[in-house]
Amino acid sequence: MGANDSAYGLETYYNLSYTIVSLVFLSPFLGYTAAALLNERVHCTVGQRGVAFISSLCHLIAYILNCVHPPYPVLVVSFIFAGLGNGLADSAWNAWIGNLVNPNQLLGLLHGFYGVGAVISPLIASLLVADAGLPWYYFYYIMIGGAAIELVVCVACFWRSTGESFRLAKKQQPGGSSEKAGLWSVLSTMPSARITWTCAIFLLGYVGVEVALGGWVVTFMKEVRHAAPFSSSMTSTGFWLGITVGRVILGFITPLIGEKIAITSLPPNAKPWWKTTHLIHLNSLIASLILFSSTLGYDISLMNSLQSLPQWQTFMSYPEGIKLGFINALQNIASMLFLPVQAWSANRFGRKPTILAGYIFMILGVGLQSASQNPNTFIYSRVLVGIAGAWFQCAVVLVTEIAYPGHRSLVTAIYMCQYYAGSSLSAWISFAMRDVQSNWAWRVPVLMQIALPLLALPGTLRVPESPRWLISCGRVEEARGILVRFHAGGDEGSQLVGFEMEEISQGLALERKARREARWIDCVRTSGNRYRLFLSVSLGVFAQWNGGGVVSYYLTLILDTIGITSSTDQTLINGFLQLWNLVMSVVGACLVDRAGRRALFITSTVIMLISYIFITALSGSFVTTGTSAVGTAVIPFLFIYYAGYDIAFTPLLLAYPAEIWTTSLRAKGVAISMMSNYIALIFNQLINPIAFERISWKYYFVFLVVLLVVLVVVWKTYPETRGRSLEEIACIFDRKEVHVTYDAKMTTEERHTGKIEHREM
């Protein structure tokens, strides 16, 4: 539906003014009006299954008519069919989702994916029409495919939702058998009429402005600002991207502050965490630790950005092949080798001192790298930056162990999402320096590696040590004081703190009973730990060996072939892709506790597999035929592929291992996951160029097989951990070795909110 609400290339083809072409947008209004009048009768007659069939059929009719590029009056009629299909589907699916559990979040995602279609469609259309030079109606071939998928999927999902079942459900509602719940009743009966008319008037202005601006901004950029066609279309993509982000975020904010407050943006009566002093303090400190993920994203992405700068290429004597692969991989090799040392330090000296130790290596590494006078100094200073990155990885362990119980899953999932914030910053800083005619063009981006760690330093110095680590060292009262201050707001008698202390203490006591001191051999000593080890290693490998490192190999070639040759336009696409990654990874993080870890992993892998099949087929066809339209079609599937990757493998890469390992082995477990990730990444950096040189795009088939393996492994072996404390998660893996009992029982909701009702034991 989002992709439907635009029209491309009609002015030129039909030789009409923009005003006349804009009349085509009145056609969907007629379709929506008809849908409103027929909606109740259609539901009672054919049910939601019939709605799914009719709406999809209307879309197919409209898009098929558009593909034959009929006379303009016929085109106007075709959009009436599209509007009718949109109206029926819009009302049906909004109403259905509104009756589910957590409707605000789900409706936010529903309307967010409307925005996804609106974000991608200008990009596809501009590449087909503006750059590939194809007629405007070629875009609707893609829409036909989407409508066909809609027909199959929606009818299958609502196959049992017949008219009879809808009428029966309606009768079972209060007053359903006696009241006339038709359109006239909704528009005339108080108090529903007042709400209906108020929302209708608001939506009249909101949707009108939204759709008008989404199309008009392109014409404005071309005719008033005299921008290039492709750059003009990017403004529409950016416009819809902002709307998409707002819709998704609002879906998660609304249940926290209420619908009325969400609409007016005035939350005077709400008491969310940001109005709770001790949680504001705690989460602000955690936000400082999350910046270390952005640091990792900046450091790893920096080399990709530097390679686009001629000044850096000249300084480094144009490295290529195995030498370039070695330069890229050296930092990751250093991080991988020092992760075991970091894990030992975290258990021996504490989580916080381990993080702070990384600053020594970061300052030395960035100083040497930015002041390099020869290539060798630049190359080997990356070792120091890699070592610093290894020490900084302890931040996710500390975040996991100090987070408020109800926030732990979200903040640990958001941790890795900020990787893309750092990578975006790296790309845009390098882009801003591209015209500097000296070595400062690359020295400034290198020097800025220290910016994010320095920004995180004040919060890192004030963050408390892990209560779990303190209890493991016998510093029980110190740990209790931290929990009282940051989880209970100073309430010494807090039952939440009492429960946490009891749970942590008993879990650690059972660990000590099994072994006196955590060693690396303990990671394979028990069946539960071997299971954890398998999950940590496989997740680290899967996060790299899913085709993401090679899926965009031909992107630059494709853009060059279809006429997008300027570094500005190419960087613009890359910039939008980074923002897309950031948005979708945050969406995945917000769904961690709603959908669960397992569901996200499976959904992510399925999306990647399906999109990768299309990418492989289109890439092969492009290399064989050189047809620019085929190459262009790869780009939207890249966005879909990364959306699939981002919703699970970005937020859960560190969050999942951090929660499945016990306290004494948590630092080692996270280190193992990152080591496996670095090994897979180093493999990609060294082997992928050789493989592409030998077998070209056919290398994609390797990752199709890998994605199938990932799907099977995740389906068969990855357990769900949603709604459990860290100690309860241990019971999933150590059922025979661990049995934690509590003197005070708490429900999951009580533990997450910190509110405990009095109960007789």
UniProtKB/TrEMBL annotation:
The record ties this protein, via InterPro entries, to: MFS (IPR011701), MFS_dom (IPR020846), MFS_sugar_transport-like (IPR005828), MFS_Sugar_Transporters (IPR050360), MFS_trans_sf (IPR036259), Sugar_transporter_CS (IPR005829)
Please provide the record's keywords in A-Z order: Membrane, Transmembrane, Transmembrane helix, Transport
| Pfam families assigned | MFS_1, Sugar_tr
Entry keyword annotation includes Transmembrane helix: yes
A molecular function (GO) held by this record is: carbohydrate:proton symporter activity
Which cellular compartments is it found in? Membrane
**Any one of the GO CC terms:** membrane
The way this protein sits in the membrane is described as: Multi-pass membrane protein
Q: Which domain of life is it from?
A: Eukaryota
Every Major facilitator superfamily (MFS) profile domain range: 285-722
Q: Which residues cross the membrane?
A: 16-38, 50-66, 72-97, 109-130, 136-159, 195-218, 238-258, 279-301, 321-341, 353-372, 378-400, 412-434, 533-555, 575-592, 599-622, 634-657, 669-687, 699-718
State the family named in the UniProt similarity comment for this chain. Belongs to the major facilitator superfamily. Sugar transporter (TC 2.A.1.1) family.
> PANTHER family recorded for this chain?
HEXOSE TRANSPORTER PROTEIN (AFU_ORTHOLOGUE AFUA_8G04480)-RELATED, PLASTIDIC GLUCOSE TRANSPORTER 4
Protein's name according to its UniProt entry: Major facilitator superfamily domain general substrate transporter
